[in-house]
Amino acid sequence: MTVPLLVTTITTVFIAELGDKTQLATVAISGTSKNPQAVFIGSASALVMSSLIGSVAGGSLSSFIPREFLKLIAAAGFLVIGIRLLWPLITNIIKGEQSN
C-alpha cells in the first residue's frame, strides 16, 4: 500500500462527503435516534460497502478500458453534474438580464 495514494483517497472522499446527502441523512437519523453510535456504525458501514463496490468496479474496468478513457468518462460525468447544478442559476441570470 502506498501512503500518498491512501492519504489522497482519504482526503478526496472526506471532502466529497462533507455536506452531501449521505451526511445530511446521517444527521437526520442521528437526530431522531437515541443511539448515535448505531447510526455511526450503520452509516460508516454503508460508506465502506459503497466504496468497496466502487473500487472493485474501478479496478475491474481498468483492466478492460484504458485509464485515460476512464478519466475522461469521470470528468465528463462531473462536468454534466456541475452544469445540471448550475443550470437554474444560469437561466435565472439570463432571464434577469433579459428583463432589464
Characterise the protein shown here.
By secondary structure, the chain is mainly alpha-helical. It folds into two domains: 1-64, no CATH class; 66-100. It has four helices and no strands. Helix 2 packs antiparallel against helix 3. The longest helix has 33 residues, at 67-99. The model has no long low-confidence stretch (mean pLDDT 87).
What Rg do the Cα atoms give? 19 Å
Q: How confident overall, as mean pLDDT?
A: 87
Q: What summary fits the major beta sheet?
A: none
Distance between the termini: 59 Å
Query: What helical percentage do the residues reach?
Result: over 70%
The parts where pLDDT drops under 50 for at least 5 residues are none
**Total beta-strand segments:** 0
Series of secondary-structure elements, N-terminal to C-terminal? HHHH
SS-based class: mainly alpha
Shape: flat
% residues in beta strands:
under 5%
Number of domains: 2
How many helices? The count is: 4
Descriptors for this entry?
100 residues; mainly alpha; 2 domains; 4 helices; 86% helix; 0% strand; flat
Topology overview:
Blueprint: H1 3-17, H2 21-31, H3 36-62, H4 67-99
Helix pairs in contact: 2-3
Summary, kept brief:
By secondary structure, this protein is mainly alpha-helical. It has helices at residues 3-17, 21-31, 36-62, 67-99.
